[in-house]
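User: quick one, sequence for these tokens?
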């Protein structure tokens, strides 16, 4: 089959493209610019375009797969429509491909990527080799976000946005956490929880945290097998894992219970967890700037930022801790303003990048301008340029920590500074 992927630079779309290539499909793809995954795709000789034009779509394609960010008016989608070819969103086509596998789906508001990555690393130490689609690049996958396994299993990160995980029918679902998010798609907590309830109905077994009230609420009427993981003491994991923070200990506990349910050698699996060094943009150490340790992280929800800062406090108790945060969406920032203010105060110094306006309307932007969040956080200074960031870093001394975090442009920004 000949498949063209629009938005192939996306972290999910690119992994699916690799899976299709591995099963024998002819694959091409485009994006508006190069992304971090392009080098891995080039190694596979996938035909890539760094623009999006109708001519990129060959006349003889069989189907077109598009990222959620690609509108119907995209010239490549319009060309496929002219040719009369079927079009699938990334998640819809992932669901079709997944029908050929036994699926382990990792879902939840926070921790999906890290938990999937942890499981992937630990499985390298045992005799169980699923194919893997994960939402980050991994050292263990040679800088890729995909692994082709030898078993008829697929381990996949399952996204709840717009109920995209509804296309999956897992043998085993793992719920990392459930807490209201994606306010543009789920305006009420009830609508968000309902999406998870519909997802787990398609699962034969669900592994979850016993102390997660959101997960327990979602599973209240679930009829399949439920495996509850009791609250873990941080001391159960801190000497085993290379990554810090209670949330990572919780992620590891979920992974270990999965190994037990699959009847794998749990001691070997634990050893694999201990070799996990972290994933891209998850407590990722980038280097030093005048002696200050610089980290990059994807955290963009108050709960994630709280866990991130507490984890660094635990690991570096004597260091001054700063954060430069890029809020993601004006609508999310408005809905969670009080919580953002509270968690950002956990840092010793706070820099606020402009809000990343993903999927926001003009009304959203007017209702929550950058200035309102900046005024609400007492320690905040504006970071609108590299010069601002340089001045912020001058407040720190050798051995101190500054974390750049968010889900938009902040990762590229910090790399340019370094």
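Assistant:
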């Amino acid at each position: 089959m000949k498949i063209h992927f629009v938005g192939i630079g996306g972290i999910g779309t690119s992994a699916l493209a690799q899976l299709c290539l591995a099963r024998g499909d002819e694959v091409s793809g485009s994006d508006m610019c190069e992304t971090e995954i392009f080098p891995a795709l080039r190694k596979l000789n996938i035909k890539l375009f760094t623009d999006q034009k109708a001519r990129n779509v060959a006349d003889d394609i069989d189907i077109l797969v598009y990222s959620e960010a690609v509108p119907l008016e995209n010239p490549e989608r319009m060309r496929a429509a002219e040719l009369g070819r079927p079009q699938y969103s990334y998640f819809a086509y992932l669901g079709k491909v997944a029908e050929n596998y036994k699926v382990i789906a990792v879902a939840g508001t926070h921790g999906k990527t890290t938990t999937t990555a942890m499981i992937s690393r630990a499985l390298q130490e045992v005799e169980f080799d699923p194919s893997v689609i994960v939402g980050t690049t991994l050292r263990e996958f040679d800088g890729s976000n995909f692994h082709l396994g030898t078993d008829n299993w697929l381990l996949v990160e399952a996204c709840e946005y717009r109920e995209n995980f509804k296309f999956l029918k897992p043998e085993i679902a793992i719920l990392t956490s459930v807490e209201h998010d994606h306010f543009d798609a789920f305006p009420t907590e009830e609508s968000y929880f309902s999406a998870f309830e519909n997802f787990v109905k398609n699962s034969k077994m669900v592994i979850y945290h016993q102390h997660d009230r959101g997960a327990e609420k979602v599973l209240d009427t679930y009829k399949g097998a439920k495996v509850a993981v009791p609250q873990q003491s941080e001391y159960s994991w801190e000497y085993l894992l290379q990554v810090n923070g209670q949330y990572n200990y919780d992620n590891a506990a979920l992974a270990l219970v999965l190994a037990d349910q699959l009847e794998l050698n749990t001691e070997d699996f634990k050893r694999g967890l201990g070799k996990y060094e972290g994933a891209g943009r998850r407590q990722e150490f980038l280097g030093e700037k005048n002696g200050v340790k610089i980290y990059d992280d994807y955290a963009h929800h108050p709960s994630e930022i709280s866990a991130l800062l507490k984890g660094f406090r635990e690991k570096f108790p004597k260091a001054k801790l700063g954060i430069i945060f890029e809020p993601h969406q004006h609508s999310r920032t408005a809905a969670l303003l009080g919580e953002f203010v509270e968690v950002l105060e956990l840092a010793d110094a706070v820099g606020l990048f402009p809000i990343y306006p993903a999927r926001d309307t003009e009304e959203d932007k007017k209702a929550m301008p950058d200035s309102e969040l900046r005024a609400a956080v007492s320690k905040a200074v504006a970071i609108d340029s590299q010069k601002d960031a340089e001045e912020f870093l001058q407040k720190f001394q050798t051995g101190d920590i500054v974390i750049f975090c968010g889900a938009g442009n902040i990762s590229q920004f910090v790399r340019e500074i370094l």
